[in-house]
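Box 3.1 A note on notation
Throughout this textbook, protein chains are presented in two layers. The first layer is the amino acid sequence; the second is a token string describing backbone geometry. Keep the layers aligned when reading.
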Amino acid sequence: FTVLGMDFFGEMPVDEEYETGSYNAQCNFRYFGSGFMLLFRTVTGEEWDGIMRDIMSRHPQAWIFFFVYTISVTSLLFELLTAIVLDEFGRVHSSDELPFGPAMISNFNLHWAQLDPRATQMIPQQKLLPFLLSIKPPVFSSVEEGRQALLGMNITSADVNGCRQVHYVDTLVAVVRFRYLQQFHDIPDIA
């Protein structure tokens, strides 16, 4: 844009008195450096309308140049800001850092389906600990840790045909909460 400005408006005299006095020996398109600084002032909003009006006194179509420049640079800066925000959001919310990410949920579902082939969303309570130790990575590091943790996980069980059963959603929520509590010790108790 600086080179275009030099080509379009570089011949304008800088020693003349213009309407606002913004186009002068320090702010002009005569040289690349001063033209670049003029456009930098324009994008920061420093008296850009005065510069444009002074140039329009000699070149009435100069508003087109400034319009295209302002839209282009504003769009570029907006896209840059958006890219930075999205990159940071992606970095902070990376599924690799989650204590119970999408891969683990898929593994949980796959193993649950093997124990619940009729998709009742219920499995026998006595199969819960072996199930939680079988998913990758295991929810508990040992059988003893699993027994202790299951006592505090408050997974509701129901009597179905004389057999204690646990529900899929209750189990998944309890496991996710347990994993988060392991990683982030300051989650408030909502129960």
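The chain has two domains: 2-92, 102-183. The first helix runs from residue 2 to 9.
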